[in-house]
Amino acid sequence: MKLYFSRNPNPRLAVAVARLLNANIEFEFAAPRDPGQADRYRHLNPNLLVPILEYSGRTLWESDAIACWLSRKAGSTLWRTDDDEPEMIRWISWGKENFVKACDIVHWERGTKLRYGIGACDDRMVEEGLKQFHEAALILDQQLTNRQWLIGDTISFADLRMATFLPFNDAARLPIEDYASIARWSNQLDRIEAWRDPFIGLNAPLPPPIVSNF
Ligand SMILES: N[C@@H](CCC(=O)N[C@@H](CS)C(=O)NCC(=O)O)C(=O)O
User: Fold this and answer.
1) Collapsing DSSP states into helix, strand and coil, what is residue 182?
2) C-alpha to C-alpha distance for 30 and 37, rounded to whole angstroms
3) Please, which of 30, 118, 154, 189 could form a disulfide with 4 given CB 3.0 to 4.6 Å?
4) How distant is the alpha carbon of residue 17 from its chain centre?
5) What does the domain layout of the chain look like in residue ranges?
6) Which residues pair with 29 in a beta bridge?
7) Atom 11 of ligand 1: nearest residue by CA position
8) What residues contact residue 75 under an 8 Å CB cut-off, 6+ apart?
9) In this structure, which residue's CA is closest to atom 13 in ligand 1?
10) Which residues are near ligand 1 (CB < 6 Å)?
11) Architecture of the domain made up of 2-74
C-alpha cells in the first residue's frame, strides 16, 4: 500500500490517520499540480489532488474514503461500524459543509494564497469566512461541552476530519480560544503524536513561507 501525500490539509489528515492506525504503508511525497507532474498522477487521481492511496492495483482518492479503508484494514473503531456510524457520518458531513468549510475559506485567504503566490488576501472573504466560522463554532462547541470526543468515549475519524485545518491556525488565525470546548478538544488532539506531527521521518519538502506583500 502506498499513500501519496503533501503537507497540505487533506493529505495531512490522511497521513495522520495512517500513522494513528500504525498502517503498514509506504509514504510518497507528491505534487501532482506542479509543472510537468500531471501526466504522472492523472491515472491515479483525475483531480490531480492528494491524498491518493494505491493498493492491490487499485487507487482510492478522497481523504474520507482512504480513512474508511485504512480503519477497516486495521480493524479499528476510528471509523465506526456500529450504531454510532450514522452519527459519525453526520459530523463528517456537517463539518465539511460548515466548520471545516469556514476554516478553509479563511485559511485559503490568509495562508494558501500568500504561500503559493496565488494573490492577495481578500479581506471580504476573510470576513465572510469568520462569520461562517462563528456560526459553526457555536454548534461544535455545544456538542463538545461535557464530552471528550464528538462521538462516544473514544476518538473517531469525525474528530480528525473536523480538525483538518486547526494545525494550520498559525496561518489562518481563527479565534479558536473564544470557544472553550473546541480549544480543549483541539489541545487534546495535539497531545496525539500522530496528529501533532504526522510527517516525522517522512521525506517531504516544507511548504513555501507566507509572503504577505502583494
Ligand atoms: N476532497 C479531497 C480534497 C483534496 C485536496 O484538496 N488536496 C489538496 C491539498 S488540501 C491538494 O492536493 N493540493 C495540491 C498539493 O497538495 O500538492 C480530499 O478530501 O481528499
Assistant:
1) helix
2) 9
3) 30
4) 10
5) 2-74, 85-196
6) 5
7) 49
8) none
9) 49
10) 6, 8-11, 31, 33, 49-51, 62-63
11) 3-Layer(aba) Sandwich (3.40)
pTM: 0.97
Domain 85-196: which CATH number of 1.10.10.200, 3.40.50.300, 1.20.1050.10, 3.20.20.140:
1.20.1050.10
Specify the 3-state DSSP secondary structure of 83: coil
Please give the number of the atom of ligand 1 that sits closest to the Cα of 14.
20
Distance 17 CA to ligand 1 centre (A): 15
Residues 17 and 76: beta-carbon distance below 8 Å: no
Out of 44, 49, 60, 113, give the residue to mutate to test ligand 1, the one with the largest number of ligand atoms within 8 Å of its CB.
49
